[in-house]
Specification:
The complex is a heterodimer of chains A (211) and B (113). In chain A, strand 2 and strand 3 form a beta hairpin. With 211 residues, chain A is of the alpha+beta class. Chain A is built from nine helices and five strands. Chain A has a five-stranded antiparallel β-sheet. In chain A, 55% of the residues lie in helices and 18% in strands. The radius of gyration of chain A is 19 Å and the shape is elongated. Chain B has a single domain, classed as Transcription Regulator spoIIAA, CATH 3.30.750.24. In chain B, helix 1 runs parallel beside helix 2. Chain B is built from four helices and five strands. Classes of the chains: A alpha+beta (211), B alpha/beta (113). Chains A and B meet through helix 6, helix 7 and helix 9 of A and helix 2 and helix 3 of B.
Chain lengths: 211, 113
């Protein structure tokens, strides 16, 4: 996988830069030298794209390189249709989850602004899980009916949100910021639902449609 | 992971490269306040041009750092926020209070002159 990515990059932007960018991407995820990390293909490609953007290339050039890279890996297609289950257990998972959400949104055809809104929402959701419960899951579900959309489900078995209506009306101003985070998610998404039961857990379901 | 602080004249430049996790925030605030109080810099520049996502937690951290700096007599300018992040922050209802913002480093240096 590394070799494949490298050969395309080297052809497009020269061996020297290709090596630097690829090393940077692998280093970012803490992957050891000589490891391939197939499961991180998409996050790695996303890092490569960000580095290419920082190289002062034309955006059409970057898009071209990325299309070439994506066409080499059939698993990129799968991202558009498959559900993705992300376990959230540590602070590091926040970064990983928001990146995966961004990649999924991009693959589904969301524009740059909506990709950012989706990634921000996932960052808020995962941050809440880590902060208030410690662990949970976030699931990214592509909806491929007439109206294409991305559904995001965040679930945990925590204590539940006891003052939900205060939080959502903005009356409750948490020092740590739960209120702000949930309100922010509501404003960024097209649909927003919370199910919360004291002592049982919380399930937040949001949907963003492609415009 | 430590965030590097770079001193330029009487200004301090902090370039945040990736999403910050809770455990780093406390030490970052400590490092910045220490640097301001020991070296007496008058301006703090926070460069966010490598940042792709700003969530409410991150925004609050920036506000807190700006607040710390102000109490210690330094002005804070945040630079390099991407346009899509600006729109997202506004829609979320988040504000960057207590810090100034500018498009790039040059303009930030002008503001702090």
């Amino acid at each position: 996988m590394k070799e494949k990515i490298f050969s395309v990059l080297a052809e497009e932007i020269g061996e020297f830069k290709a090596k630097a960018i690829l090393r940077g991407a692998y280093h970012y995820f803490g992957i050891e030298k000589d490891k391939e990390a197939e499961d991180l293909l998409l996050p790695i490609l996303e890092r490569v794209r960000l580095s290419l953007n920082g190289e002062n290339l034309k955006s059409s050039k970057v898009d071209g390189v990325m299309r070439r890279l994506q066409s080499m890996f059939p698993e990129v297609k799968r991202v558009q249709t498959e559900e993705e289950h992300i376990a959230v257990e540590s602070e590091e998972d926040i970064r990983m989850a928001q990146m995966r959400a961004k990649i999924k949104a991009q693959a589904l055809g969301f524009n740059g602004l909506d990709q950012t809104k989706i990634a921000t929402t996932v960052a808020e959701l995962t941050r809440n899980i880590i902060k208030y419960v410690g662990k949970g899951t976030v699931t990214l579900i592509p909806l491929l009916a007439d109206e294409r959309a991305l559904k995001i489900v965040a679930e945990d078995n925590g204590p539940g949100i006891t003052n939900l209506s205060d939080v959502l009306s903005g009356a409750y101003d948490s020092k740590q910021g739960l209120g702000m985070g949930l309100l922010a998610i509501k404003r960024l998404m097209d649909s927003f639902e919370v199910e919360t039961n004291s002592g049982v857990g919380t399930r937040i379901v949001v949907i963003k449609y492609i415009k | 992971m430590k965030v590097p602080l770079i001193k330029i004249g009487d200004k301090l430049l902090v370039s945040i490269q990736t999403t910050i996790i809770d455990s780093v925030v406390a030490s970052l605030r400590e490092d910045i306040t220490n640097e301001i109080s020991t070296s007496g810099v008058k301006g703090l520049i926070i460069d966010l041009s490598s940042i792709d996502i700003i969530d409410s937690f991150f925004c609050r951290m920036i506000n807190d750092i700006g607040h710390d700096a102000r109490i210690l007599g330094a002005k804070t300018v945040v630079v390099g926020i991407k346009p899509e992040l600006a729109i997202t922050l506004v829609q979320m209802g988040m504000e960057m209070r207590g810090v100034m913002t500018s498009l790039n480093l040059n303009k930030a240096l002008e503001i702090l002159k």
